[in-house]
Write a structure and sequence with these properties.
globular, disordered N terminus, mainly beta, two-stranded antiparallel ribbon
Length: 79
């Protein structure tokens, strides 16, 4: 993209095989996992559109602490 700076970071969380790719230019972060430290169930039928154009439901939203100094807020739960 012209004129847009973005950076990304990949790391392994807690020694598991779960790899997180963090994109500072992303509008939203999302996960299929339930690592939430706080969580709200969404009841208003929200969804995301994926690369092939299909829609996938968002069941909740919450905060995740990946490391002691790295917190993600308002992460979408997309099972």
């Amino acid at each position: 993209m012209i004129g847009k700076n973005s950076s990304s970071l990949s790391f392994n969380v807690s020694g598991t095989a779960n790899i997180w790719n963090i994109d500072s230019g992303a509008i939203d972060h999302m996960t299929p996992h339930s690592y939430f430290s706080s969580y709200t169930i969404l009841i208003d039928n929200q969804h995301i559109t994926v690369a092939n154009g299909s829609h996938t439901p968002v069941t909740g939203c919450g905060n995740i602490q990946l490391q002691s100094s790295l917190h993600l807020n308002n992460v979408l739960h997309v099972p």
